[in-house]
Amino acid sequence: MNLKKCISILIISVMMFSMVSVSAASENLKLYLEPQIMNDNTGDLDVKVNMNNFDAAGHLTYGDIYHLAFSFTYDTNAFTINTCEDGSLDVAVDETTLIRNIDAVKSKVDADKGTVDFEFDVPKNSEAAIGSDGTLFRFTLKSNNVRGFWHSFDKYPIRFDYKSIKVNTYNYLVSKEYEVNNVIAYDCNVGAYNKAPTLQPKSVNKTVEFSANSNCVTVDGEETETDARTFIKNGVLMVPVRYLVENIGMEIEWNGEEMLASAYADYITLKISMKDNKTYINTAPVDMETMPEEIDGRIYVPVTIVSGLYPFSTCTIDGDTAVIYVP
User: Fold this and answer.
1) Sign, CA torsion 84/89/93/96
2) How far is it, in rounded angstroms, from Cα 242 to Cα 253?
3) Taking the complete model, does pTM exceed 0.70, yes or no?
4) Which are the contacts of 65, defined by CB distance < 8 A and separation ≥ 6?
5) Is the residue at 243 inside a domain?
6) How many separate domains does the chain show?
7) Distance, CA of 270 to CA of 279 (rounded, Å)
8) Is residue 244 domain-resident?
9) 242 CB contacts (<8 Å, ≥6 apart)?
10) Is 314 found in the same domain as 171?
11) What is the pLDDT of residues 132-188, one digit of tens each?
């Protein structure tokens, strides 16, 4: 076999390898918290910060993570958080964690607001860069009421800041760096007794129906009148987000100052920023041809957004009527 033919085969092989990698990169890199069971004597609650699906999300294309940043909030009424003397997060790393060099970590805790900013940063081609799934690091929450908390089943949220996630990688084979955007982060609820997260939404088992020019919603055959009328915009059925998410197992909040609508369920978080005109599901931006719209104090979204919230749901549209089933 001559040299020219060998080079051609090598080039084709590299192209095929790249195509497979880019295709795999359509999946998401996942960040999530894994709280352990609280120590009933001290009130300490160990929380792991985990990452998985790295290979499927494009590790072979993007290379290793040299920079990772995110922020999260915790409930200051229920917990204090272990900090260092300088006010940074008391980050626990060892031979079992993906981050092993504490000098690569910068963090800041605002104990009054219950916010934590975290950043991991190493040189691009460092051996300390992250190249696999696992636990990134651990930190400790401490219950403000050990006895009461231990004897209750109350849970309190820890939530990622939907605009804070940033992941940068470097592939030394091609000497190229990337900003990875296919990253999702899962919020969690923390109590004294915690189970390993499944990252799968709980069963809803509801059928919800909306019709254009109607201010009613039908749930499992029972019709309820609302204060918001469904309408069609550019051929898309726009439904009031409150009556959509509340009827598929989510709780909704409105922050008027930030012009932000937030909806929460187990392992699902929806953020609609009317100020930025952007929508996020589990911190990942959602591409939408028809954007949410505010009319008379109500926010409307395309009915098809339900497929992003519950991937196994169905949304059957017949003319001006949509029937949603969430299993």
Assistant:
1) positive
2) 9
3) yes
4) 120, 129, 130, 131, 167, 168, 169, 180
5) yes
6) 2
7) 7
8) yes
9) 228, 252, 298, 299
10) no
11) 999 999 999 999 999 999 999 999 999 999 999 999 999 999 999 999 999 999 999
